[in-house]
Specification:
This protein has 301 residues and is an alpha/beta fold. The protein has 9 helices and 13 strands. The radius of gyration is 18 Å and the shape is globular.
């Protein structure tokens, strides 16, 4: 069995669907909500657990109702929860996600108490795969340095110097276009593929030994394979919720890169996972079955 360690943020998502995006000062009555755990590293860990990987998760949650709900999700995914810390002084971070039912665009409102660094890192096994999201940059750095022979994936969506520095430690960096713009110093032009190529080239100049995969939301992902810069599109699906695309991509990519190390196949798995995840609302409860990802890959590639 493959073994993995994921380290990063854990929070609880409250997804609310509205018919139109509220204007300032408006009062909107909402009667339905969809709740589930969130956080990139945690979502990747739950995905890996459901797909048969022996996965340990390092994160901090509150000793409250939302923390307990999250813990139940971890247990159902058969995660190794020995490295999860429960805070008695701080609540579990909450995210309210407002989804426009017509456009499928969304706004996210995060509510967090004081940041708490992860302390439980006395792992008693060597993982095949390490995934960090950079939320706890100090602990992420320690973990990436501790297992240099593991497949090391940084899911980079947090734009800080500390996370920029982690790119030197990871073998693979999956980053948002905003992160790529800031790290490369090149502005992205949505109408110019050349701007994407320039961004990628600048990223590689700064991090020669790191493979970069740029997540392009509904346009797929950019990567380099056999010295060719390519864009892998998403699979066409009826979209209900776009906001989980990044986390789902990271999960699919991380799983496949750990299985057979083929970068292009891992990108395809990431795109398929992201596409399937967008069919329903709630990132974690929309994790697709591994068999479905494999079937679509075999049918399309």
């Amino acid at each position: 069995m493959l073994k993995a360690i994921c380290l990063g943020r854990s929070k609880y998502d409250i997804n609310v669907v509205v018919e139109k995006t509220p204007t300032e000062g408006a009062t909107i009555e909402v009667f339905n909500k969809i709740g589930c755990g969130g956080g990139t590293a945690s979502n990747v860990a739950v995905s890996l657990g459901k797909w048969g990987v022996g996965c340990a998760l390092s994160c901090v949650i509150g000793n409250d109702v939302y923390g307990n709900k999250i813990k139940e999700e971890f247990d159902k995914a058969h995660l190794d929860t020995r490295y999860i810390e429960q805070s008695f002084n701080n609540d579990t971070p909450l995210s309210t996600i407002i989804i426009n039912n017509e456009t499928k665009n969304y706004n996210i409102y995060n509510l967090s108490d004081k940041f708490i660094s992860i302390k439980k890192m006395d792992y008693d096994f060597s993982p095949d795969l390490v995934v960090v999201d950079g939320y706890d940059s100090v602990s992420s750095k320690k973990l990436l340095e501790r297992f240099p022979n593991s497949k090391r994936v940084l899911c980079a969506d947090i734009i800080t110097k500390e996370v920029f520095d982690l790119c030197h430690k990871a073998g693979y960096v999956i980053c948002s276009i905003k992160f790529a713009e800031m790290l490369s110093g090149v502005k992205y032009d949505p109408n110019s593929v050349k701007s994407l190529v320039t961004i990628y080239q600048e990223l590689k100049k700064k991090n020669l030994n790191t493979e970069f995969i740029i997540h392009l939301k509904e346009k797929g992902a950019l990567y380099c394979y056999n010295n060719q810069i390519k864009i892998s599109p998403l699979i066409q699906m009826e979209i209900q919720d776009r906001q989980g695309s990044f986390d789902a991509f990271c999960a699919g990519f991380s799983f496949e890169i750990a299985v057979d190390s083929d970068l292009e196949k891992a990108v395809k798995y990431g795109c398929i996972s992201a596409s399937l995840n967008s069919r329903t609302i709630g990132t974690r409860i929309s994790i697709p079955p591994l068999d479905e990802i494999k079937k679509i890959y075999e049918q399309n590639y």
